[in-house]
Amino acid sequence: MLELERRKVPSRTMIWLAPVLAVLATMVVGGLVFSALGYDGFAAVRAIFIDPLITLRKWQDLGLKAAPLVMIATGLAIGFRANVWNIGAEGQYVVGGLAGTGVALATWEMTGWWILPLMCIAGALAGMAWAGIPALLRTRFNVNEILSSLMLTYVAVQLLYYMVNGPWKDPDGFNFPQTRIFTDAQMLPYLSGIGYLNVPLALVISLVVWFLMARTMLGFQIRVVGAAPMAARYGGFSQRRTIWLALLAGGGLAGLAGLFEAAGPFGQMVPAFPTGYGFTAIIVAFLGRLHPLGILAAGIILAVTYVGGEASQSSLGLPSAATGVFQSMMLFFLLAADVLVGWRLRLRRRVTE
Amino acid sequence: MTEAMAVSILMTVIGAATPLLLAALGELVAEKSGVLNLGIEGMMLVGAVTGFAVTSSTGMHLLGLLAAMAAAVGASMIFGVLTISLASNQVATGLALTIFGIGLSSMIGESFVGLTIAPLGPVFPAALAEDPLLRLVFGHSILVYVSLVMTAAVAWFLTRSRGGLILRAVGENDHSAHSIGYSVTTVRYAAVAFGGAMAGLAGCYYSMVQTPMWADELTAGRGWIALALVVFSAWRPWRLLAGAYLFGAVMTFELHAKAAGLNIVPPEFLAALPYLATILVLALISSRRSVGSAAPACLGQPFRPST
Amino acid sequence: MTLITRRGLLKAGGAAAATLPFAGRAFAAEPLKVAFIYVGPVGDFGFTFAHEQGRKEAQAHFGENVVTTYVENVAEGPDAERVLKNLADDGNKLIFATSFGFMNPTVKVAKRYPDVMFEHCTGYQTAANIATYNARFYEGRAVCGTIAGHMSKTGIGGYVASFPIPEVVMGINAFTLAAQKVNPAFQTKVVWVSSWYDPAKEADAAKALFDQGADILSQHTDSPAPLQAAEQRGLMAFGQAWDMSSFAPKAHLTAIENHWGGYYIERIQAVIDGTWKTGSVWAGLKEDMVRMAPWNERIPPEVVKAAEAMRDGQADGSVKIFSGPIVDQNGTEKVPLGSALDDPTLLALDWYVAGVQS
């Protein structure tokens, strides 16, 4: 019979092979399932998973969609590695965007090189502050950060609704709930052929975090606290400090990502600002094995499915719900394939002992 | 305020509270066993669309309810296999389940958009519920009574039964439970399946009672409120009941205040209130650390037997 | 790599697109490609559903000469921008963006694709290749108001509303003014649900309004839930965007139907003929963009007559619902006798007539 047997050492091959297997399994099973449902299943797989990658003009779309996902997921993964479960990145993203918007509206009709950096700082700080609440609650009152960070997401979204429906409503906007459009001085520079500046910045951030996590004492400490809390305590690493660090890093990057979206592709604050990036980033973080470079790849894969999913609607008549089904299927397969990292499948005959 | 009006308002409160209570009870049991399932919204949607589709096709409400529970249990088992047998991360798996449920329900429901069914009516004969006050007692669909009975049943089960003791032991210290011979895996599968069944019923409350129809994302995020409620209740069934009715009352109060022309506080503040209250409660109970009131110790942690 | 500002790039992008080979009518023999983007799912049975019916009508009208496609559930913002851009890249010559929040993305993309025609629904920004279109829903509201004035026993109408944007505000006012022409004491109570779509909340809002004395309900949200609540209470309501009588056969008195099909056919034909021009269309009962669903049998004949008079009067221009005297909530006269609100004022409306409780 087929049995699972624990590996003595986690398989390094499987760490990288599992995501590939998951994507392949999604393509095969998804193709079969959608064919059974009466769609052209394999054309759907091609449209969703392959076409955006081989269509050069869609690369810019991929970059723009992947950048916030990669930034947020990179920050979250730092925490996840330390066993700190910040799942409220969506809220930190929203608050970051809001803080940047606040600066933009306060500097309305001003010009100066300092406006955009100030917006960036405000965005990152706001994200950190929002993530600091769960950190404080966890370290002071032992509150589970999964629950508190999630709850705060909904508070952040309501705060956004309040601001765009009330104090920040565009005075010339016919009462539509949205702010003024940012001026050029408040917008991220646009790089021809690449997208807004946040795309290369996301790449840089991901490399910097990789370096920090792999090569510095700080990264080592975070990994030890997550993997072996007891050992970390003997080693004199403070768990409390790690919790703060993990949440502030996650919140800061999510806040910055929010600001980049507001001052880039959105160009204003609107009620539709929370697009679920904060939640999708959790999936990206796992798909990328909590590794900055893996996250980079995972962010692009997710972006591919979004961009491909839209195209499949107009080209194949696939409902938008199909994209969600494909994405969740991919994650299910990945999580299932994960077991192969720590365990091996073995064919075993009945033994009599 | 007339008696009829007061009764009518209370009926609305009960209507708003019941699906939250149903879904949250299921999640409470799952969490007590140490499993955090963030896929409530997804399971509710799968239940809602299945209940509607089966009722619409067969005309039998009971069959719709059963099918909805079965379908939601099926969805919860995807989560169960991954998180319990394969020890995957519960947060990520739960989120994936929600995305899956939104997508799947939309695809199943495509051909049912624009149809309606007879709502699942009161379970008692109408004659019993003619008087307004009696209507408050006898004028509800079966799901209201199920939610109340299940509250009592869950409360009894968790505190008074052997099974409940084992379930809590598994949630508080899975390794100890395992070492004294209880199957952590079996207990958690059962708890997750129960959570699925209850979420399925909760979904049906929307698609078969309150707004007998199917439309995409019919539950509009109520699954997340149910999740907050579990925390708000400090994992205690009777507090959960009180919490659900409090949430229902706040939601209804907001609408009534507006209908009466009162704009006391921004609506966004009221919408954020349940979540703020939950954080506050969470801080209070977690800092007290009295036994049995804070989060189950193993919540969210995968169980990997050391043998 | 050159670092250029957003506006600079848009210009550069536009110039590049103009030189693309598929510009012009080189492929006249090929079917014209037309795309629609929707903010909601086509299964919402409300606003998006109505647009989808319009698309299907246009597709059926043109048959093989036109290929129409749609992308649903497009979030307003960068996602919309990307979808619009890709639809333009895919060779669509005419793109309908059917939600207000698509306005800025449409403006951005249209600059880069000067040879693609864009049509934006419910917005206010036009360009050489962006036309706007919208329906005078308020004319339908006035017909509903006339019926409500006759049918309501309590003299209180309920209104389940989404956001206080001009379109919703003018609907509330038109409904109330028309009802007051029948019953001067008529009041409208408004509940804002701060959402276009939240069935459970819409239903509970309807119940709250009924509990506070309303016996007839109008809605400016997208789900049939308020109608179902009215049906369960044995009261009355009006459908939104489409004939919703199947959800509430007794309560559903009529509905304001959004018929976009005729406009879509006209505009697609204009592109085929090469006569497409930008502009702002705000059409109503006259142009058949707004249509009243069949009257419920329970409406007495004399009320049907009054409703039809209101409908036909607005269609032929003899009745203007926003003609003075109109007094606002605070008692200030906003429109004197003998004049009427003009379109620009209506499109920025932010006050309520006396009798509205919001």
TrEMBL record, chain A:
Name of a matching Pfam family: BPD_transp_2
Molecular function GO labels: transmembrane transporter activity
Keywords attached to this entry: Cell membrane, Membrane, Sugar transport, Transmembrane, Transmembrane helix, Transport
GO CC terms in record: plasma membrane
The keyword Cell membrane is annotated on this UniProt entry: yes
Leader sequence segment: none
Matches recorded under InterPro entries: ABC_transp_permease
Compartments where found: Cell membrane
Membrane topology: Multi-pass membrane protein
Taxonomy, superkingdom: Bacteria
Sequence intervals crossing the membrane: 15-37, 66-84, 114-137, 146-164, 194-213, 243-260, 266-286, 293-309, 321-343
Name listed for the protein in its UniProt record: Simple sugar transport system permease protein
Lineage start: Bacteria, Pseudomonadati, Pseudomonadota, Alphaproteobacteria, Rhodobacterales
Automatic annotation (TrEMBL), chain B:
Keyword Nucleus set for record: no
NAD in keyword set: no
GO cellular component: plasma membrane
Subcellular localization: Cell membrane
Gene Ontology terms for molecular function: transmembrane transporter activity
Alphabetical keyword list: Cell membrane, Membrane, Sugar transport, Transmembrane, Transmembrane helix, Transport
Domain of life: Bacteria
Membrane-crossing residue ranges in chain numbering: 6-28, 35-54, 60-82, 94-117, 137-158, 189-208, 220-235, 269-285
UniProt topology in membrane: Multi-pass membrane protein
InterPro entries tied to this protein: ABC_transp_permease (IPR001851)
Protein name (record): Simple sugar transport system permease protein
Organism (species): Amaricoccus macauensis
UniProtKB/TrEMBL annotation, chain C:
Origin superkingdom: Bacteria
GO cellular component annotations of the record: plasma membrane
PROSITE patterns assigned: TAT
Domain ABC transporter substrate-binding protein PnrA-like: 33-294
Alphabetized UniProt keyword annotations: Signal, Sugar transport, Transport
InterPro entries: ABC-Purine-Binding (IPR052910), PnrA-like (IPR003760), TAT_signal (IPR006311)
Signal peptide stretch: 1-28
PANTHER family, sorted: ABC TRANSPORTER SUBSTRATE-BINDING PROTEIN
Identification of the protein by name: Simple sugar transport system substrate-binding protein
